[in-house]
Each structure stands twice: as C-alpha cells, then as structure tokens.
Amino acid sequence: MRKAQAHLVKLLERLVNVIPVCPMRDSRRTLRSGIVLPWTIVLGFLAVAMCLATGIRATDNGREGTRPDATNSVSAQRLSRVPLQSDSRSDSFRVRFRTEFAKSLKNSGFAGDVKPRNRGATGDVLVWDVRVPVGYSVLRATAEVISVVHSFGGNVYRAEHEYADPLKVKLAVGAAHAVTDSILLATDRSIASRGLLAIVIDDMGYRSMAESGRFADLPFPVNLAFLPAGENTLELAKRARATRKTILLHLPMEPENGNEPLEPNTIMTAMSDEEIRELTRRHLESIPGLAGVNNHMGSRATRDERVMRAVLAEVRDRNLFFLDSYTSPGSTAAATARSLGIPTLERDLFLDNSSDIQTIQRELWAAADKASRSGRAVAIGHDRPETYEALRVTIPAIQRSGVRVCFLWDLLR
Known about the structure:
The protein has 413 residues and is of the alpha/beta class. It folds into 2 domains: 2-61 and 72-191, no CATH class; 196-412, TIM Barrel, CATH 3.20.20. Helix content is 40%, strand content 22%. The chain is built from 13 helices and 14 strands. Strands 6, 7, 8, 9, 10, 11, 12, 13 and 14 form a 9-stranded parallel sheet that branches. Strands 1-2-5-4-3 form a 5-stranded mixed sheet. Strand 10, helix 11 and strand 11 form a beta-alpha-beta unit. Helix 7 packs parallel to helix 8 and helix 9 packs across helix 10 (305-317). The radius of gyration is 23 Å and the shape is elongated.
C-alpha cells in the first residue's frame, strides 16, 4: 500500500509541474512528461489520484455520504444494499446519471464498455462495470468518469483502489450526501485497441446551426475546425465546447491556384512577417476555446518556410498544437512546427473528395485500416450533409472493430 501511495504521489508531483502553465496545456512541457490531457481531465486526474494516494474521502459541504467501515473495502454487493436518503437533488441526479452516464463517457473519448451490473429496486445503489481497453489508463478513465459525475452536479464520496495488475478502482457517487451509484473500473484484456483514429471536420462556420450543429452532437470524439469569418462560427464553436469536442482554428492560407476564391483576411506569401503575425493573432483571438490550428487551403503558403515561421510563432506562444492539412506535397509546415517545439500532426487521408456517401464510407474504413496497421491515423472531412451521414452510420461499426476514434490530443500523448 505504501509503495502504491508513493507511486501516486510522484505522479501528482509530475502533474503539478504541468498544470499552472496554461488553461489547456503547455504543449512543450506536456510532451516531455508524456501527458496531454484537457484541463478538466487533469483536474479529475488530480482528484482521483489524491483520493487513492491518501485515502481521503470526498465530501459534500463537509458531510460524507454513505461509506464503508474503516477497515474493509466495500464489495459491489454490500454497496448495493446501502439505503439511499430521499432528497430531490439525489433523485434528480440518479435519474439523469443513469440515463446519460454511458453516452456522456463515450462522448469524452472513452473507448471501453460501460454497463450496469444490477437493476434492483429503485432505492438500491446501481453498480456500473466500466471495462477499460488494453492500452488505456485506468486512472485516466477514472478522471473522465469523475468529470462526467461533476458535469451532472454530483459528487464522488469515496474512491478505493486495488493496486494490482490490472489496477482496479471503485467510486461511490451521488448527490445531496447520498450515494446513488457505484462505479467499478478495471482493464479488460479482451478489449484490445487496434489503433487510434482522429476525425477532423474542416470548413465549419458558414452553414446553419441545424446543419452543422449535428457534428457537435455526434456521440463520439470529433475535432471541429472553424473558419474565422464564418457567420455562425461563434455560435457553433460554443455548441462544440458544450459537447466537449476539440476546436481548431481553420486558418485561411494562400493556395497555389490564384483563381481560387479566398476567405477574408487570408494569409498571403507577399505579406511581411509582422503582417502575418498580426493577422494570425487576430484570427486566433476571434474564436474562444481553441486547442489547435490547421491550414485552410495553403498549398502555396505552407511551402514557404518564412511564412510558416511567422504563423507558427503565434501558435507556439499560445501553447496550441498544429495539424498540417498537407494540401501540398512540398509543405514545410509540419517540419517547421516541430523545429519550434510545437506538438504537430499531419493529415493522412481526405474523406470526402467525392460527395457520394458510400465512397466516403469506404474512405473511413481505409482510415481505420491505416490506424490498425500504423497505430494511428488522421482523416479530414468537411462540413457537408453526406460526410455527416457517413460518419453517423460508419463510425460505430469502426469502433466495434477495435479501432478507437479519438481526439487529436490523444495522438500527441
């Protein structure tokens, strides 16, 4: 036990060095420590690590919920027999949590299985089995569960663990001083990840909320890239943040074909370094909650290292990641970003060069196959009805095949 506590305390010390740097993450320090997590997940990670390392029981306004006796760990059977205190807050939490917990956890990027174990009387504590895939940290899954609990207005009243192989964690959660649900997390070796696949949807911002908002509501991780001049960009980005999607600036950059229609305030190779930095800065400041940047068009601009250094200096100063959409085989963007210490990814496939739904579905499976063979893949699609329909139908089947659909920051860990 002391060895386990010491291990977790060291982990906490590493996290403390990462957290104060920026609201999202300090990408350079994060890469050295091997941890890239959104801010809310880091806080959840801290909470569970503190509970597990020190044995402190979480409380609600200083009062504890139902709890085990001091010496013995509570089994799922004992916990399910603990009577609930009747309270409108706990009743409301219980109904919402049991209806939406599994879906919300999947939306956060969790790739395992979530199932209720028992369906006893209304007043019983419901036990959930959260089966964590091989290669996915149980502590990270625990932090994600805690984040979901808090998003429903609930509390974690107890965190216990068995420091074995595999690590197992038990959480007692509820509201208004009453435990309503017990969550048991452990690695299930039968669930093996066959690779990571990140889907990016470009050109967000111009279509209506009814059309584009559907991407934000998809029940799996999607990364949404917004054009700064889009008339609905701010409203759609707000929707994306509410559904915990990753948001990127889709930065307009000069294409090779001079006849292409350009976005307002496109980055041009004829601009000076200061003009490029100022324009990039304005675009970055126009959309709240950005996690990263990728290029819109840019087949000419991304081949110009001077231009890319000016653009990426602003990206680096905000501790964002950069995704090279790779619109030109001569692109210097990814190499330049890496030379500046910026977390960097490159596009592997475009999904929707054709607007035919079946063709897009085939490209999705090609992306899944690349993820399975290479361990990871980044696929870019666009804000179109056909792309939405292909994702809605195909991604659940890809997930069942063992490929984990993820956020871009999962690929940077």
